[in-house]
Amino acid sequence: MTFEDEQRQLESARRALVTEFAGRVPEDQVEQRFAELVGQFEGAPVRSFVPVLVRRQAREQLRSSAS
User: In the chain, where are the structural domains located?
Assistant: First the structure.
C-alpha cells in the first residue's frame, strides 16, 4: 500500500465515522479521537491494516462515549 492509498483510506474512514456519529458525538471529538489513534500507529512497520484498525478502535471508543 502506498502512502497515498493509506491517506485516502484514513480520510474515508474519518468521514464515515463523522457521519456515523453525527448528532451523538460532536464532530471535533470524533476527529480528535481518530487523530489520536492514527498517531498511535505512527511508527508501525506494517501499514496495510492501519486504516482498518484505527476505524475499528475509534468506533468502539466512540460508541462507549455516546452511550
Answer: 3-66
